[in-house]
Write a structure and sequence with these properties.
The chain is mainly alpha-helical. The chain has one domain (about 1-210). Helices cover about 70% and strands about 5% of the residues. It contains nine helices and four strands. The protein has a two-stranded antiparallel ribbon with strand order 1-4. The N and C termini lie far apart (about 45 Å).
Length: about 220
């Protein structure tokens, strides 16, 4: 038991399974509204587990992670103020505290997704630009399942209740640039937990879509 607890990957995976099992049971019992109020804390939990399992965490890793977090946050600020990046949208109350009309957790979400998807591809011996393109595509795929859930639970809303194609294009371009920088400046992105966190969260979004009778638009 002691050696199990010392194994950060095994410990993290069991915590992840426990938390999402509780979430799925709550969802099946009809407590989706209450459950989704915990989303900011769930994101912090997921980010914490990823950092705990980041095998190459060093000064450069930390600095670039901070760059991605801050860039992600201020891109969102510019996005909602101008409507020129993602389209015309506004954040609701579902993601907690806001500054400049953007939830503080959003920047951390960009960091979590960039480093999570980068970890899936870091071993592949292919050009960095191609790795960044594939990882950016994975991020956009994740967003496709996130969008109906986000609108349903007041994370954000779109003008005219329509998600523009511009949103997905902007997501891909911004993610690509962040990922290209990540693959360039961070040497060790290995994270055994990343695939499990991203997969479980995506499956949870799909379950919510079915439970709430949502549609992907």
């Amino acid at each position: 038991m002691t050696s199990f607890l010392k194994n950060r990957f095994q410990l993290s995976l069991i915590l992840l399974i426990i938390v999402y099992t509780v979430g799925i049971v709550s969802l099946l019992l009809g407590d989706a509204e209450s459950l989704m109020l915990l989303t900011p804390y769930n994101l912090l939990f997921a980010i914490g587990l990823l950092l705990y399992n980041a095998e190459g965490f060093d000064k450069k890793y930390g600095i670039w992670l901070l760059v991605v977090i801050l860039a992600g946050f201020f891109v969102e600020v510019l996005g909602i103020k101008t409507g020129l990046i993602f389209g015309d949208y506004a954040y609701g109350e579902g993601l907690g505290w806001k500054w400049l009309d953007v939830p503080l957790i959003i920047g951390m979400n960009w960091g979590y997704l960039v480093f999570g998807t980068a970890a899936l591809l870091h071993k592949h011996n292919i050009p960095k630009a191609l790795k960044a393109a594939i990882a950016a595509t994975l991020m956009v795929s994740y967003d496709i399942f996130l969008e109906p859930v986000a609108v349903r639970f007041d994370f954000w809303t779109w003008a005219g209740d329509t998600i523009p194609l511009q949103n997905y294009i902007a997501w891909w371009v911004i993610a690509f640039l962040m990922l290209l920088g990540t693959f360039t400046f961070v040497k060790n992105l290995r994270n055994r937990l990343a695939i499990y966190v991203l997969l479980i969260q995506t499956l949870f979004f799909i379950l919510l879509i079915f439970d709430q009778h949502l549609s992907i638009r």
